[in-house]
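pinning this so it doesn't scroll away 📌
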Amino acid sequence: MLKQILSKLPKKVPKSDTSDSAQSDSGSATTFANVFQCTNVGVAISNKLNAVKRVSSAVFPASLSAGVEAVDPHVSFKDVSNIQKHNLFISKLNLCCSVYNINYPDKNCKEEDVKHQTLVELVDFVSSGSAKFTEPSIAAMCKMCASNLFRVFPPKFRASASGGETEDEELMFDPSWSNLKIVYDLLLQFINYNALDLKVAKLHIDNAFIVRLLDLFDSEDPRERDCLKTILHRIYGKFMVHRPFIRKCVSDIIYRFVFETERHNGIAELLEIFGSVICGFALPLKEEHKMFLCRVLIPLHKPKSVSSYHQQLTYCVVQFIDKDPTLASTVITGLLKYWPVTNSQKELMFISELEEILDATIMTEFQKVMVPLFRRIACCLNSYHYQVAERAHLLWNNEHIFDIVSQNRQVILPLVFTALVHNTQYHWNRAVLNHTENMRKMLSQMDEELVFACQHKLEEEDSRSSAAAERRRVTWERLEAAAIANVQPIAVVGDVLASPACSVAC
């Protein structure tokens, strides 16, 4: 009974059967003339219809193709409609994710040429403003950049004695730069794109992406570091949510450089970025920014390779003092802490930086550090390296420094006067002697009575030291005479030497 009831129910027609039956019905309604006309039209536009077709999942991953129709990436943007350009853009991005081994250029020569041409097309397409950066296209762009840019650099075999690169070393250039340059241009245009949705983009340009991008600053190719500098600066400016993380990552890189390896190729570029970042700090400065100065920038004076980034470091330090003049004493104290003892070239850089810092220093901060500061300057005035001594003398030609010194001359002149007199008597270089004489005349014009008092005090100290030296000489002569008087002849008893009795109790 049950089987009879079920057999009378209408059977469900499959979708394929329904579509086939619909097609057959519509086909029966058409005439032979219409079919012939449609056939001719199809032959006429067959080339354009072949432009849109399915591609493999290797070129268009399933994770990025949800709701998007893939297009053959080898087709030009001119050969597809405006609706299909977005899908073609994503297909071309995924085609460029393939990375070829540069050690075997002949093996993948054709594929490499296709990739290069595709990258050029992508740059032209984005620069024209026709691109639409939806979430699938943003994901494809970040994936393509990560595949081509993020890589591990080979070990550094060119180890120099100073612990870093020197000016005499030959620059290293990446052999795959022709493609890398286009990828960097594409990434920069992507970040600068006016219609870019930052809320969606920050999901893909995330912390992991930024960390890998910062790792690339260790590249030995200066062209790559210059591109990275521009891109990271744009990311810092556009993605406000990433700013604290970027500052933290850069601090970690500098910590590792200063206290562990003393080897990194991109410190100068990172400091260039932060030079403009510091200019944008709001007042009053946050405690975080002051800690960055004390724990990151000031210790950067320690490494031997400071010459490779000293100009950028000085700019950052001076920007901090311009923002908050109360930081000047902290900076000068840190500079004195890391002052070089045996490296004259490094000492010259420190004196130049000190002059720029003093130009931005207010009186109250100067008075906190003027005693240790001018003790160090006095040592520089006496340096037997004539360039160091000459540069220290030229500090006094700075109007601002001369003004603050004149207002505190009662403390400063006694600290440097002895060094000037010592130069007059003992220094070997004629140019340094001329600077010393000019400086003594300048100080006499500043305060003649104080100079005379310093001269009188120096003479008294010399007389006291001469008297002490004379007393020491007389004491040693008496000791020598007493030692000679107490010597007795050695008696020989048999084969044994009989030593005289010791007159000093042991």
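📌 and the second one:
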Amino acid sequence: MSFLRKTIPMLGALGRQHQHLKTVVGALPTSSRQYSSDPANDYANFPGAKAPFVSQLKLNLPEDYAPIPIYRVMDRDGFIADETQDPQLSREVVEKMFRDMLLLNTMDKILYESQRQGRISFYMTNFGEEASHIGSAAALEMRDLIYGQYREAGVLVWRGFRIDQFIDQCYGNVDDLGRGKQMPVHYGSRELNFVTISSPLSTQMPQAVGAAYAMKMKKGNDACVVCYFGEGAASEGDAHAAFNFAATLGCPVILFCRNNGFAISTPSHEQYKGDGIAGRGPMGYGIATIRVDGTDVFAVYNAMKMAREYVLKENKPVVFEALAYRVSHHSTSDDSTAYRSPEEIEVWNSVDNPISKLKRYMVHKGWFDEAEETAFIKDVRKKVLKQIAVSEKKLKPNWREMFEGVYAEMPEHLVEQRKELEKHLEAHKEHYPLKNFKQ
């Protein structure tokens, strides 16, 4: 009886629904009701997706789709593969690209050794990725806003960040623009429109999209946002949020992935499946996408020019994947020979090295002078070593500054904490190196 009591109302409801459908179908033209005779390729118009209908069931597999091609301009010998793609940059610009790569490379070697000597706490080099920094930076305008991860020092070099600013930040002294509040290599510059780097992966990605949305709202906006991140960061939840908001809100942001093959010690084939990071753009999020050879400074330059023009004209994002190889250890906390062979590293450090590739191009053009290169590297080494000697002797910022710089008016709990620390230091000052801090 209980089953019947539940079933009878249900059958009544189904009957009413059937009668309603008959009424609706009867109101439609005959041609609209002939579903069985419709062609198999007619197009669906669901709110969630627009796609053709098919009458044969098929599982869509990753291998059914061709990988997104990798754009390049130069081959590994420095020759232009297609003359129509030569950016026709002046000798002056190409020489600046080359010098900036050399400066970054030379500074990296010395500061890496500085950490090994115990003079700074941490460092990350940029070996193998110099072209993605310099090529992208050269294609942008100074008014474009940069959100970096932690391996984009070349962007700052191109924009004019000085050797003393790099080294003061690594030493966290009184002249550090970050006031000693960040780890080494966490640079930032309001003057150069480079937002201070954060340690946690991908936190900068939704922030960058938000900044781009704010720019979009400005009348007559002529600037975009470029957000750099690694393929490892693309596995974080913040990356999904950034991609999705950038697409649905239509933001002028270039989401620049430096796919260097390794997320610390995890190789890319263990980090993700599918067609790299570029593969997520068109189908995954509906975002225009470019994939380039990240060891080719001209390919990165041309692609960034196109990406910038697109995001400003269309007010839509671009996913930009620069494929390269992280020649260096992940950081001074890593030994990459534990998970890859020295022979593999050497191939990428010689045959497919970005600096070597550009040098070969300059040789073909008659623009390279070995004596000038040697003199330039020697001069940079001298400046970096001299600055280290100066920076390490500078005082640290006043310790009270650790409580400042977040709120316009310091909240009561921070005021209390500062008072407690003042009392503690006064009582135990002999145990602290207060003379090393600005008073």
